[in-house]
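Our consortium's second objective concerns turning raw sequence data into structural hypotheses that experimental partners can test. To show how far this objective has progressed, the report includes one record in full. It was chosen at random from the queue rather than selected for favorable results. The single chain below, 212 residues long, was entered without modification.
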Amino acid sequence: KKYIETVRKHYRALYEKNVSVDLVFPDSDLSGFKIIIAPMLYMIKPGFAEKIEAFVANGGIFAATFLTGLVDENDLAFENGYPGALRRVLGIRVEEIDALYPDQSNTIVMMDGSGSYMCGRLADLLHPEGAQVVATYGDDFYAGMPVLTRNKHGEGSAYYIASDPEPAFLDRFYGELVDQCGIAPAIQTPKGVEIAIRFKGDQPIMFVLNHN
């Protein structure tokens, strides 16, 4: 249930920008994408980490979150800790996972002073291994530890979100990524108006859905 909620939360940030999203699988061809988002990617199957490394090295952007890379395809924990086989491309090592009660929260403080956001549920205590710290926790015994990191790998970047942020953070985070990649909706619409494009052969068909 929490996995589905998390995926929907990340999806919604893009949906509200009218940015179309495809669902892909570990064996999918990633070459046609600019951004791959993998919330709570608990299991890493053989070959997937190498595929993500190649994707990022060729200029792609990869975004992962807490509870990523805990086990292999046999549900066995990785001996080198979290995030398992994605440790190199993400440039981090997770030392511990702190679980917060429903009424507890922490804050995401941007290193450039541009704002702070609420976060909760789970909070990774991590150490950079080459990654740049973009934001830190604001409270508790791990105040000042990284909560958002960016690791340059080849021509691209891999991001790690160490806690469950409020929607405003994801709105900003994904907004900056799609702008960076030059991704934009087919047409600009008011909030609540959805654009979807489907293809019949080479013929694009645009659907405009007014949810207002």
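The partners drew two points from this record. The chain has a mean pLDDT of 95. The two ends are 28 Å apart (CA to CA). Both points have been shared with the crystallography group to help prioritize constructs.
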